[in-house]
Amino acid sequence: YRIGELYEVRLHDDPSAITRYEESLAIEPTYQPALRALSKLYARRKDWDALIKMNMNEADAATDNLRVSAAHARIAELYERHRNDRDAAIKHHARALTMNPGLAVSFKALVRLFTEVDRHHELIELYERGIDESTHNERKIAYLFRIGDIYTDALSEPIQAAHAYRRVLKLDPNHLGAMHALQRASESAGRYKELVEALELEARNTSDRTRIVAILHRAGEVLDNHLDDREGALARYRKVLTLNPKYEPALASCGRLYHRMGRWEELLTVYEQELAISPEGPASVALLQAMGH
Question: Is the per-residue pLDDT at 63 higher than 70?
């Protein structure tokens, strides 16, 4: 190594310096001064194959997992940046993470590479590994949302997306974003019972009465239109009217259901409630005519 240093620094003879450094590494592939010196010289000469080989030798010879993982991360970067070989880059970043699961540079690189080449299932597996390794709920939740987004947008698997959002709610039962995402996924999947459950979960976690009224009315509509559960729908509409007796959409929904079910006395009561809040005009005239019939 010292002879190589003399060639490089005193004699400015890079080829001879490289030869001596390589001889040094042939004896001890993990000797860091020679590794640093050769890295600089190979990069200066743009000898990427030699630089890759040097790092491979270090990875094979090193016994410390952190050094092995760092070497594979460098190899991956060289393959991607200078050889335009994404597959090799992915392989070596994966090896780096195997040796050091907390290596952020390889984790981030794999997220980017898997996204660029549409390897969605492998990206999901990577996020799952990140969840397993993390001790912070905020990071776990962020990864679960990314998993849900992949299932929703890239794979069109809303059932799996809904499962990811339910896992978020286990970590944070009050996460409004997860409730909304679960509602969208459940509706896309045609899981209307689960949609009602997600809507009512939001209603229980909301203090805004106006929002609760709208959510419960929506739950009633789903029960009526998609689950043919008229009694369940009426129960939600009645709860809405308990909170806001003048909520016209719920009155109209109750009226339609009572009419379809032939429950005329209850229908008449709804018409009277609607009439009480309707201004004089065509709407009130129509209600009076309906009551007459």
Answer: yes
Tens of pLDDT, residue by residue over 147-206, are 999 999 999 999 999 999 999 999 999 999 999 999 999 999 999 999 999 999 999 999
Strand segments (E) across 138-278: none
pLDDT of amino acid 285? 44
More confidently predicted of 185 and 269: 185
Model pTM score: 0.86
Alpha-carbon distances of 43 from 36, 38, 47, 48, 110, rounded to whole Å: 11, 8, 6, 7, 24
Distance CA 174, CA 100 (A): 34
Return the residue matching tokens 């009217």.
241
In the structure encoding, which two tokens stand for residue 220, read together?
Answer: 């009633």
The most distant pair of C-alpha atoms in the chain lies apart, rounded to whole Å, by 111
Of 273, 266, 191, 269, the residue nearest 231 (C-alpha) = 266
Q: Amino acid letter at 273?
A: Q
Give me the helix-helix angle, 120-133 and 104-116, nearest 10°. 160
Radius of gyration of the CA atoms of the chain, in A: 33
Q: Which residues of 46-73 are buried (b: 16+ CB within 10 A; e: fewer)?
A: eeeebbbebbbbbbeebeeeebbbbbbb
Q: What is the spatial distance between Cα 55 and Cα 53, in angstroms, rounded to a whole number?
A: 5
Answer yes or no: are the C-beta atoms of 290 and 264 closer than 8 Å: no
CB atoms within 10 A of CB 214: 19
Percent of the chain with pLDDT over 70: 93
Give dist(CA 276, CA 274) in Å, integer: 5
